Structures are given as C-alpha cells and as structure tokens.
What we know:
There is one protein chain. The chain has eleven helices and six strands. By secondary structure, the chain is of the alpha/beta class. The protein has one domain (3-225): Uracil-DNA Glycosylase, subunit E, CATH 3.40.470.10. It has a six-stranded mixed sheet. Strand 5 (153-154) and strand 6 form a beta hairpin. It is globular.
Amino acid sequence: MSELATATRSPELALANLYERIADCPNCPLARTRTQTVPGAGSPTAEVMFIGEAPGQREDEQGRPFVGPAGRFLDELIGVAGWTRDEVYIANVVKCRPPGNRDPEPEEIAACRPYLDEQFAILRPKVIVTLGRFSMQRWFPDAAISRIHGAPRHLEDGRVVVPMYHPAAALHNGSLRDVIIEDFRALPGLLAEARAAEAARRDAQASGATIDDGPARPLPGQERLI
Length: 226
Ligand code: URA
C-alpha cells in the first residue's frame, strides 16, 4: 500500500488490509514452517507500541503476540504503567515463528521490515518500546541493553523510543524483574512528554514558527550514535 493510501484509510481498515497481506506472505523460509502469521494486536489508535522479537509456539498456535509466559509478564508490566493490553499495540520484528524458537535470521528480519514500517505509518505511535535486542537494534545498533535500558531517545519527528529488557529475560533472571518494573513505571511520564512535544510542534506549525529542540544529547553509552 502506498503512504498516501495508508494515511487516508482508517487505521482499522489499514491494519486489516496489512494483516491479510502478512497472512499470505511468502517472502522468507518461515512461511513454510509457520502454523499461522502473528501480525500484531491491540488498539488501532494506540499511542504506545511495544515491539518484541518473534512469535513462539503459543503465538504460532493462536495468531496473537505475547500469549505465553513472557506475555503474561508483559501484561503485568503494561498494568504497572497503568494501561491494559487493549489500549496499546503489540507486534514483533518477525511475524512468523522461527522453528524451535531460534533467533530470527537477518534475512527474515529484513523480509518483515516493510510490515513493521507499515505498522509505524498506520499507528504513528508517540512512544515505541523495544523489548529485547532484535527490536532495539534498529535504533541502538551497537548498544548494550544493560547500559541503556529505560533511557528514552527522542527522534527528530517527536517520537520517543525506549529500549527495555525483554520480559522473558526476567523470567530467566529474577534480578531483572525489579529493573524492568521500574523502567515500565516511567512510561506514562514519557508519553505525557511526547504528547506535549507533539502539541507544541502542531502549534508552531500553525503559527509558521519553528521549534529549536537544541542539539541532540547522547545517552550514556550512545555517544557514537548521534
Ligand atoms: N512472544 C512474542 O510474541 N514475542 C516475543 O518476542 C516473545 C514471545
């Protein structure tokens, strides 16, 4: 679908159209081993989007993201932020299950990237939360999650990206549980900031002024990325 078509359809219709195309996708070897595709789920008007890695066995059976043990913990974390699963949007970098839950291959991630890009174009989330290293790589390619988790990056278009540990990491390493919970607690404040920034940008556009956001400031450990 062209960007114009994406922008002029309702998000519900645009997502339904996208899900149909994902269901028929033959673009990588995972198409031959999947039970069904797992395109994403949640509110078509969500302001917050969570991006995981890839479907596991339960997700492959049910066609919905994060329905296994990691998903139950993600629900709890979304609750810590004061939201429900129905108010946010959840997707994965890769829409089909890698056999045996192995890591997705670079070609599989590349084959799925246009679908994730289209989800961003349809939803235009104000806050994007990456869960684990595969979704983090897009914005923080060489960073270590242990150094940057919870630290927001403000993109030029006003969106905020927040790298988080994957919920499954806390299931395997109990000491990370409190760390992830604290990181999720900060999300409502970041959303409030992103909303205010967007309102200021709209006001400035309406009055013909420009906003000087000042020089980009690197986060600890990201000095090379800016
Ligand atoms: N389930 C998903 O849908 N994605 C993950 O990254 C892990 C479990």
